[in-house]
Recover the amino acids of this structure.
């Protein structure tokens, strides 16, 4: 039996608790939060007795796995300390909020290849994204021409006021991109590979006086493969959560809304049918807990992580891979500040 400890008992923690509790080989033995009451409340709900306020106490216990569910600014230190304590670690997005964070975390992970380290990007574990990636790998779209992602959601001033870290450079590291659109930017890397360079604009259009970071951003980019990309993202929209991805290939065209196909075009009816059958949304796995847009992927990702620990292999999404998605976002910020095309670093 693997023992697991959870650091951070806020909004996302129940999704991790329920995900780990669904795995027979895992027992959650400790919950930690700076506010003891938050840990105790979840402990009572999920039958976990041991609660503490100092994560170093959790690291000193006999847990094998540490799940980091705290704010962005605290991820790097907790992850590095957990690795130094010999624990397998899975950390929520965004892995870090500065290039320095990412450097430290990936260096610590690489120095301990015997430990399994991962960053949460649960949408990679959804049936539709896995199936879409397979279609792309099998060249079902023909030559890829260009890709666009438009993402719109809404975050109120009250949302930003609900946590002192939210909407700050030091605590969150950014706004719409590093917190909400990050899922879709990781999805782009999952589907199309690494981004080589990009040029961006960002602004705070509706949260002035409340946040220090962007609520809206756009960028143009080129993948390593040469494929062209445009992205627009805002959390000031009159819409809860909608991502709209279009893929234009020489043999097929796809419109993909909230991880589901909404339109498939092709001059070849057989190809169109083949893509539709492969992306059938009814095959999607069930969701566990949390908001609907969290999707069903946490269960799959936590299960893959635990299997990776048991089988001593890499998980599907490693910590280094997750760092590269955060690096893409930090490069958007760099370009928006410099007004220039910027190359995306790789960890
Ligand atoms: N994958 C997803 O879909 C998804 C959804 C929501 C949040 N998240 C991510 O999960 C993380 C947490 O977000 P949230 O919305 O739950 O935040 P939150 O503010 O609700 O909860 C964070 C908790 O961490 C605690 N904490 C902070 N520093 C700590 C420390 N050093 N030791 C112990 N506890 C500490 C805080 O007291 C707080 O209770 C963020 O990285 C966020 O981006 C991911």
């Amino acid at each position: 039996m693997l023992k697991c400890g959870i650091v951070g008992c806020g909004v996302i923690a129940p999704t991790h608790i329920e995900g780990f509790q669904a795995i027979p080989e895992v027992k959650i033995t400790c919950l930690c939060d700076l506010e003891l009451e938050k840990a105790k409340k979840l402990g009572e709900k999920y039958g976990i007795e041991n609660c503490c306020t100092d994560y170093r106490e959790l690291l000193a216990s006999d847990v094998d796995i540490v799940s980091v569910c705290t704010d962005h600014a605290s991820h790097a230190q907790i992850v590095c300390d957990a690795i130094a304590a010999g624990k397998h670690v899975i950390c929520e997005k965004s892995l870090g909020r500065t290039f320095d964070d990412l450097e430290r975390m990936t260096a610590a992970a690489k120095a301990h290849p015997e430990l399994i380290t991962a960053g949460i990007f649960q949408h990679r574990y959804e049936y539709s994204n896995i199936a879409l990636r397979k279609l792309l790998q099998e060249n079902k779209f023909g030559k890829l021409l260009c890709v666009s992602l438009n993402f719109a959601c809404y975050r109120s001033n009250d949302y930003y006021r609900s946590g002192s870290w939210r909407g700050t450079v030091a605590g969150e590291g950014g706004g719409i991109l590093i917190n909400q659109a990050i899922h879709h930017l990781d999805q782009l890397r999952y589907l199309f590979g690494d981004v080589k360079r990009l040029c961006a604009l960002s602004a705070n259009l509706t949260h002035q006086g409340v946040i220090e970071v962007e609520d809206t951003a756009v960028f143009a980019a080129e993948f390593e493969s040469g494929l062209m990309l445009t992205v627009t993202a805002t959390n000031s929209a009159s819409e809860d959560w909608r991502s709209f991805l279009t893929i234009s290939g020489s043999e097929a065209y796809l419109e993909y809304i909230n991880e589901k196909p909404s339109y498939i075009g092709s001059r070849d009816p057989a190809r169109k049918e083949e893509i539709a059958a492969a992306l059938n949304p009814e095959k999607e796995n069930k969701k566990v807990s949390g908001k609907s847009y969290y999707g069903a992927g946490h269960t799959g990702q936590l299960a893959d992580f635990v299997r990776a620990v048991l089988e001593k292999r890499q998980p599907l999404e490693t910590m280094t891979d997750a760092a590269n998605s955060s690096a893409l976002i930090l490069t958007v910020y760099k370009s928006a500040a410099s007004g220039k095309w910027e190359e995306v670093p790789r960890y």
Remarks:
- Residues 2-121+301-317 form a domain with the Rossmann fold fold (CATH 3.40.50.720).
- The pocket of nicotinamide-adenine-dinucleotide is lined by residues 7-12, 32-35, 38, 55, 69-72, 74, 92-93, 120, 122, 163, 179, 294 (CB under 6 Å).
- The longest helix spans residues 319-338.
- The chain has twelve helices and 14 strands.
